[in-house]
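Good morning N.,

You mentioned wanting to compare the apo and holo forms, so I went ahead and generated the holo version with biotin. This is what I fed in:
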Amino acid sequence: MHLPESRRVAPELLWLDEVTSTNDVLRELVVSGGDQVLDRMVAATASQTAGRGRLGRSWIAPPGKTLAVSALVREFNALPPGWLPLITGSAVCRGIRDVAPRASVGVKWPNDVLIDSRRSGGKVSGILCEKLPDGSVIVGIGLNVLLTEDELPTDQATSILLHADPVGDPDGLMDAVLASILRQLFGLLDEVSRGNVESIEGVRAIVTEDSATLGTEVRAMLPAGTDVQGEAVRLANDGALVIRTSDGGEVVVAAGDIEHLR
Ligand code: BTN
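and this is what came out, ligand included:
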């Protein structure tokens, strides 16, 4: 695919016609190529055959209509690692807003990007960050770009096409959204790398602002199989979600699935 805008943002962009999982391909490149694989190298495809999701799930993406993107982040030291998926969520939100300014886009903690989250709630993107043995992280983003209603993989999914202004050139939309997301992601990572109090607080504020979860009534399904219900009130220092329960207590949720109740 011709991706002029994206290649300007990410000169180290490897486009693959078809691939099992972009996260796996990038990991193999890093393992075999070591330091020669540059920070912010990006592997991307519109046809991923064995995409992986969080918590061992698969990520189903009809070929040709979706983007699977993996970016290598060599250093992320100025914030706890739990912030990287949250920052990626903000970058995806902001990238989508650039191409679909009328869409209401927000992050469902920790890794889902939703359009119209407070109403019918469609998932447009999922994020899977995976740490490599050398300490670097692969940031994986799955994005529903050109799917029509009939092509959505589940009834809880949506696509950018369904929320963007009429699109003349489908490849142009793919390129524009990929370029915007990478630009936003790299910009936020640059801010974190500055490492001073203002830049870190600025990034935290952006993540908080883009959250569709904070301020809402939620049910958290924890990995142990238990539930916590209450208001999502803030993000903890490590990026965990703090839920205030009806008895006034607070529960800190580090991992799990969140359901927005209203
Ligand atoms: C989720 O919603 O559970 C996360 C889905 C993450 C999918 C992306 S697509 C690019 C990258 N490669 C993968 O195999 N998974 C991630």
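The pocket of biotin is lined by residues 21-23, 48, 51-54, 57, 59, 68-70, 111-112, 126-128, 140-142 (CB under 6 Å).

Happy to go through it together on a call whenever suits you.

Best,
F.
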